[in-house]
Amino acid sequence: MSVFLGLVILVTTLSGLFITFKKDLEYLQPASRKGEKGEISQFLPPEQIANIVLALKLPEAKSLDDINRIELRPGKRMWKVRLEQTSEFSSPRELQIDAINGKVLNDGLRGDQLWMDVHSFMVFGKVTSYTAMILAGITLFWLILTGYYLFFYPYWAKASKGRRTADKAPLVAKLQTESRG
Question: Which residues span the membrane (predicted)?
Answer without folding.
Answer: 130-156
